[in-house]
Amino acid sequence: MVAPNSEAPSNPRIVSSTQESPSAAEARHSADLYIRTSWIDAALALSELEKGNIEGGRTSLWIRAWLQEQLFILGCFLQGDAGKVLFVAILVLSTFCVGLKSAQIHSRVDQLWVQEGGRLEAELKYTAEALGEADSSTHQLIIQTAKDPDVSLLHAGALLEHLKVVHAATRVTVHMYDIEWRLKDLCYSPSIPNFEAYHIEKIFENIIPCAIITPLDCFWEGSKLLGPDYPIYVPNLKQKLQWTHLNPQEVLEEVKQLKFQFPYGTVEAYMKRAGITSAYMKKPCLDPNDAHCPKTAPNKKSRHVPDVAAELSHGCYGFAAAYMHWPEQLIVGGATRNSTSVLRSAKALQTVVQLMGEREMYEYWADHYKVHHVGWTQEKAAVVLDSWQRKFAAEVRKMTTSGKVSAAYSFYPFSSSTLNDILGKFSELSLKNIILGYVFMLVYVSVTLMQWSDPVRSQAGVGIAGVMLLSITVAAGLGFCALLGIPFNASSTQIVPFLALGLGVQDMFLLAHTYVEQAGDVPREERTGLVLKKSGLSVLLASLCNVLAFLAAALLPIPALRVFCLQAAILLLFNLGSMLIVFPAMISLDLRRRSAARSDVLCCIMPENPVPKRRVTDRTRNRGSNTKNSWKDATRQPLDPEETGDESKVSCISLSLTKWAKNHYAPFIMRPSMKVTSMLALIAVILASVWGATKVRDGLDLTDIVPENTDEHQFLYRQEKYFGFYNMYAVTKGDFEYPTNQRLLYEYHDQFVRIPNIIKNDNGGLTKFWLTLFRDWLLDLQAVFDKEVESGCITQEYWCKNASDEAILAYKLMVQTGHVDTPIDKSLITADRASGHRLVGKDGIINTDAFYNYLSAWATNDALAYGASQGNLKPQPKKWTHSSSDMDLEIPKSSPLIYTQLPFYLAGLSDTESIKALITSVRELCLKFEAKGLSNFPSGIPFLFWEQYLYLRTSLSLALACALSAVFVAVMVLLLNVWAAVLVTLALAVLVLQLLGTMALLGIKLSAIPAVLLVLAIGRGVHFTVHLCLGFVTSIGCKRRRASLALESVLAPVVHGAVAAALAASMLATSEFGFVARLFLKLLLALIVLGFVDGLLFFPVVLAILGPAAEVRPLEHGERLPTPSPVRSPVWARRGAGAGGAAERTRCKGPPRAAPSLTTITEEPPSWHSSAPSVQSSMQSILVQPELVVETTTYNGSDSTSGRSTPTSKTTHTGAITTKVTATANIKVEVVTPSDRKTRRSYHYYDRRRDRDDDRDRDRDRDRDRDRDRERSRERDRRDRHRDEREHRASPRENGRDSGHESDSSRH
Predict the structure, then answer these.
(1) Residue range 1057-1071, pLDDT digits in tens
(2) Whether the predicted model's global pTM rises above the 0.85 cut
C-alpha cells in the first residue's frame, strides 16, 4: 500500500512517463509556459525581459510575479497543513453563522426606499417626533365587484349584498385579556362635547357611531351599520335610541319638553355646526318593502326602487353632514358618466372602516378601569387591533364562500396589518428555495467534475465539498453582516444567497479546472501552490473588481440599495477568503487521496484501486545501448505536456469543453466572416438596447409584491384599477408664528385648489381645514354675543341668568388678553361693533393676542369640529370645559404649535407617471411657501411610496458610474493596461444597457429592486470579461491567436459558472410570490444569458480586433517564448537498503545541498534566473553515451629495452603487435544554472521545510540503523554464548578442578 504522504511512483494516473518522442519539442512549445508565460510564471517572463529575449511591461510583470510568489507560498503552506487550516476555517465560519440570530429584517417602505439624509427622511423623522412612531389610524377596507366585468353595480341588489357582508364583518368580536373587544372599542368615532352630567355623557358616547365610509350612507340602509348593537334606553322617551329609527332633531325637541336640567343650547349648537338633522330618516330605502323602512323615506309610499346612480353622484353624507362627506371617487370605482356628469355605471364599490391606531387605542383605554388588570401597553393594543382585523377579513371570506350572498359578486377584504404581513413575509428567508438551489448545485457540480472512466482523477468530491463550503461561507457572511448591524431586507433574502453562490461556484470551477489540468510530473508538495499561482490571480482580480464595484455603489443613500451592496461586498470577501485559503486545503486533502490511488467521493469506504503493472519505458529498455534515439531534451519543463506514446482518455466535461473551444469554437468565431457578423450583431444589439432603455417606465405596484391568487392581490389590483384614491396632508411645522401669519396659512391652503388630482367639494373649492373651522366657531359665538349684548343679557361686568351658554362662552373669550400678567380685561367688551374688540377681525383674522386661549376653548368645546378637521395639532391644546355656572373667567393658554395638518383627498392616480406629476407639483408649491417663511412639507402614501422615483434614475446612474469606475481602477492597477481596463469597462456598460433593453422587452418597470439587479449586472459581468481579458493580455502571439488562447483557458469554468448560477436562480420559480418569478428570475436569467453571449462571443471578437497589446512579446519567435535554460537542480541524497544504504547516506550528508557536484555543467552565466518552482524542484539531465577507443602497439625487443614509446610515430616496424579496445559508457550529466539569492527567496519557505523533512528522515534512518546494529550485536553475542556453552558441555572433564580450570581458560 502506498503511503498517503508520498507520490505513488507506479501509478500511471499521477506519474507521467519520462519518455519524450521526437515531436516533444513541438508539443512543449505549445504548452502554457511558452505561450502564456506571464500567466504561468511571471518571474520567468521578467527574467527573459532582463536578458533581452522579450519585450513587455516590466512593472506589470513585477507586480504579477510578486503576487504569484505570495500565492505559491500560501499554497505550499496550505498543502502542508491542510487539516489544521480546514479545521480552523470551519470553526471560524461556524462562529460567524451564530450572528444570524441577531439579524434585523426591515420591511417597511420608509426603511427600504427613503433616501438617507434626504428631505423625506427628515420629514418622517419630524413627524415621528411630533406624533409618535406609530401610525395615527388604520383602515379596514372591502371592495365589491361583479364577476362579470361588464355588469354595473349601480342597482339596489348589489348594494343590499354589500350591506350583508359589511354588516356581518363589523359585528365580529375577539376575546383577549379576559375582555370582549368589539368594533366600538377599536374604531374612530367623532368627538362629543363634554357634559357635567355623567349619565348624559355616557348616552352620547354610546349613541355616537363609528366612522364608516360607505356608499350605503346615501340610503337609509346605511343606518344599520351604525348600531348600537343594543338600543339605548332613555327614561321618559317614547322609544329606545337606535340609528335605524333615530331622528336627532325630534329626540332633542322631545327632551326639551321633559324640562330636564340639560344644556340644550350647547347640544343644539353642536348639532347645528355638525350638520346633524334628521340623520337617515329622510333618505331613500334600497328595499322600500323592508318593515323597518321609515315612513319618512321618500320612496316608502311609492315602493319604487331608488335611482342608485343619481343618489351616489357627487358622493354621500354621513349622519353629520357638515363633517362627513364621502367623495364619490372614494366609494364608487370604474365609473362612467353622462353628459351632465351624473353616474351611469360603476364597476366597483368600496367601504372603509376607520380604526384607531395602536398609539391612539393605548391612550384611549390607558385610564379606563376595563384594562387595569391586564397591564395595558401599546404592544397589547397592537395585538388586539391585529387580531380583530384578521377576524374581520376571515368573516368576509366566510360570507363569500358560505353562499349567504349572491354568487354573482366578489368581495375582497384588506387591512393595513395584512399589508405589513405581506411585506414582512416577502422579506423572510426562503429556506426551501435556498436548499433546493444548493442541492441542484451539488448535483450539477458532482456530475460535471466526475470522471467515470478514472475514479482516482475524478473531482466530484472536491466539487461537493466546495459547494458545501460556499453554503457555510454565505451563512457566515450574512451572520457577520448581522453582527455589524446591517439590516436585512427582500434583496438580502431573495438575491444575495444566490448571487454569492453563483460567483463563488465560478471561482471554484476555475481552481478545479486548473487542478485537473496539472501535469503529472509536478512534485506533489508543490501542486496546490501551482494551482494558486496559475489561477489565484484571476480569482483575486475578479473578486476585487466585484467588491470594489459593490462598495462604490453602496455610497448611494437609498437604504435597500446600500444594504444589498454592502452585504454583497462582504459575502464576496468571505467567498474570496474561502476560495484562496479553505478550498486549496480541500484540494490538498484530495491530492493525498489521489496519491493513495483511492476512488473519488467514497475514498474512505472503497478499497485502494489496484495499481497496474508499471510499463517498462523505452529509456529503461535502451539503457546500455548505443542507439541514437535514446535521448531526452534537457530543456523540458515540468509544466510541459506529458508525452506518453498515446493520449489518455479523459471524460471530464471541463477538459472536453476546453478541447472543444480549442479545436472548434475558437477557430469558428475567429473567422473573418464571423467577426464581421458578430460586430454587426453587437452594433444592432446596442442600438436596440438604447431604444429599449428609453421605453422603460418607472414604478413598482403593490400588486407586484403580493402573492397572486390571494384576496389581498385581488383587492390591490381592483383598487388600483378602479379607484386610484389616496389621502395626503400638507404639514406645517414649528418656527412659525401662527397667530400673526394666519393670512399666509389661508393662502397656502387655497393654492392647493390648483393641484388637479385633489378632490374638490360640490362648489369646486376645497374642504375647510382646522383654522377655517376654528374661525367659523368664533364667528358664530361673536354673532350670538352681539345679539345678547343688544338685548341686554350681557354687559361689560356680568351676564344675566337668561344669557345663553354660547353667549357666556363668548363673554369669557372676549375678556382674554393673552398676557400672563393680566390675563383678564373686561374693558375689552364694548358695544361698538365697528371699532371695538372682536374675536375675529373684519379681515377674517383671529385675535392674535388671545389666539392660543381661544384654541384651548375651541378644541374642547367644539370637539366634533376639531376631530373632523384632522388638524392633529401638536402640542395638543389644553383642555378647558365651559360651564355657565363657572364664574372663573380665565382660560388656559395652549402652547405654541409645532405641527398641524391640512387634509386632502387625491383621485385619478392610477400609474406612476401621474403620481410623479402630482408629487412634483405639490413639492413646487411647498417650496414656494417655504421661501415665504412657512415651513411645510407634504405627507401621505404617494410621497412615501413613489417619491423615490423622482431621483431613482439619477441615483442609479451614479451607482453604475461608481461601480464601473471601481472596476476600471482595479483592472488598470492590477494589469497596468489602460486600454484593457477601458475595454472591460465598456463591455460591462454595454451589458447593463442590454439588461435595460431586456426590461423593456419583458415589460418590467424600473424600481429600486431592478436597480439592484442592474448594479449586480456589473458584478456578474466581471466574471465573463475579466478572466478573458487577463488570459488575452498574458498570452503570446497575434491578437487572433491570443483571443483563441484566452477562450480555450476560460471557456470551461465560465460555462460551468453560468450554468450553475442559472440553476441556483431557477429555484426562485418555486416562490409563492409571483413577483419573484416575474422580476428576479427573469432578470437574473436574462443577465446570465446576456453575460454569456457577451463574454464568449462579442468580447473575444472585440479583443481579436481592438484588443490591447500583449504583456510579453518575444523577439526571436513571434508565437512562443524562446526555450529558457534549465536551472540548477538540488543534490538529493539517495536512499539505499541495509548497511550500504546507511553508508551512502553518510557520504551524501557531507557536502551541502547547494554545492555543485562533479557532474554539473554551467551553461549560462549566473545573471539569468528563474523562479519557476516546478523547474527548480525537477531533475534535468542529459543521457550522454561517449565512445572511447584505446589502441596499444607492442614493438620488438630493441625498442622495448630502450625504454621509448612512440605511439604517434608514423614509422612502421616489423614484428609490432597492435591491440584496439573500444568502450562505450552511459553517463548521466545534470545540466544546471546557478541561481542567485533573489531567485531563491520565493522558495525559502519550501526549501526550509524540505530541509527539515530531510533532516527528520535522516535522523529517523540513523536511529533505525543504530537500533538495527545494536540488535545485531546482541544477536551475535547471544549466538557466541550459546556456542561456548554447547562446546563446554561436549568436552571431557579430567581430574576435577584442573580440567575445569583448563576448560574455563580455553574457553576464555
Answers:
(1) 788 778 777 777 766
(2) no
Q: Give the Cα separation of 3 and 592 in Å (integer).
A: 9
pLDDT tens for each residue of 1114-1127: 887 777 777 665 55
Average pLDDT value for residue range 855-860: 89
Highest mean pLDDT among 421-425, 697-701, 838-842: 838-842
- Average pLDDT rounded to a whole number, residues 531-540: 86
Query: What value does the mean pLDDT take over residues 458-474?
Result: 86
pLDDT score for 1231? 52
C-alpha to C-alpha distance for 93 and 390, rounded to whole angstroms: 42
How far apart, in whole angstroms, are the C-alpha atoms of residue 1137 and residue 1261? 10
Q: In angstroms, rounded to a whole number, what is the distance separating the alpha carbons of residues 910 and 916?
A: 11
Residue 616 burial (10 A CB sphere; 0-12, 13-18, 19+): exposed
Instruction: Report the pLDDT value the prediction gives residue 928, as an integer from 0 to 100.
Output: 92
Tell me the C-alpha distance between 1006 and 1003, whole Å.
Answer: 10
The mean of the pLDDT values for the chain is 77
Alpha-carbon distance values, 306 to 2, 214, 310, 866 (Å): 100, 17, 9, 35
Tell me the pairing of strands 336-337 and 343-345. antiparallel
Closest to 1302 (Cα-Cα) out of 1292, 179, 384 = 1292
| Dihedral over alpha carbons 194, 200, 206, 212 (to 10 degrees) | -50
Q: Which residues, 6+ apart, have CB-to-CB distance to 162 below 8 Å? A: 142, 144, 214, 215, 216, 349, 351, 409, 411
CB 1063 within 8 A of CB 441: yes
pLDDT in tens, 611-661: 444 444 443 444 444 444 443 443 333 333 344 444 444 444 555 778 888
Q: Report the 3 state secondary structure along 386-449.
A: HHHHHHHHHHHHHHHHCCCCCCCEEEEEEEHHHHHHHHHHHCCCCHHHHHHHHHHHHHHHHHHH
Q: Is 68 left (phi over 0), alpha (psi -120 to 50) or beta?
A: alpha
| CA gap 917, 924 in Å, rounded | 11
**Helix or strand run (H / E) with residue 1187:** strand 1187-1194
Closest CA to 561 of 114, 238, 863, 1040: 114
Given a cut of 80, is residue 1260 above it in pLDDT? Answer: no
pLDDT tens for 758-775 read 888 777 788 889 999 899
Residue 1171 CA, distance from chain mean position? 43
Alpha carbons 1219 and 1194: distance in angstroms, whole number: 8
For 745-752, the CB contacts below 8 A with 24+ separation are 745/771, 745/934, 746/771, 746/772, 746/844, 747/929, 748/902, 748/929, 748/934, 748/936, 749/902, 751/925, 751/928, 751/929, 752/902, 752/904, 752/925
Interhelix angle 1008-1033/1039-1066, nearest 10 degrees: 150
User: Is-contact 875 895, C-beta < 8 A?
Assistant: yes
Residue 1254 or 18, more confident:
1254
What is the C-alpha separation between 35 and 1045, in angstroms, rounded? Answer: 9
Q: How far apart are CA 994 and CA 992, in angstroms?
A: 5
Q: What Å distances lie between residue 685 and 841, 1023, 1066, 1093, CA to CA? A: 71, 21, 26, 11
Rounded-to-integer distance, Cα 440 and Cα 1069, Å: 14
Cell 330618516 identifies what position?
281
Q: Please name the residue that has the C-alpha cell 375577539.
A: 174
For the record, the C-alpha cell of 432 comes out as 426551501
Distance, in Å, from the CA atom of 797 to the CA atom of 802, rounded to the nearest integer, reads: 15
Match 343606518 to its residue by C-alpha cell: 223
- 1211: Cβ contacts below 8 Å, ≥ 6 apart: none
* Cα-only R_g, the chain: 48
Which one, of 16, 14, 7, lies nearest residue 640 by Cα? 16
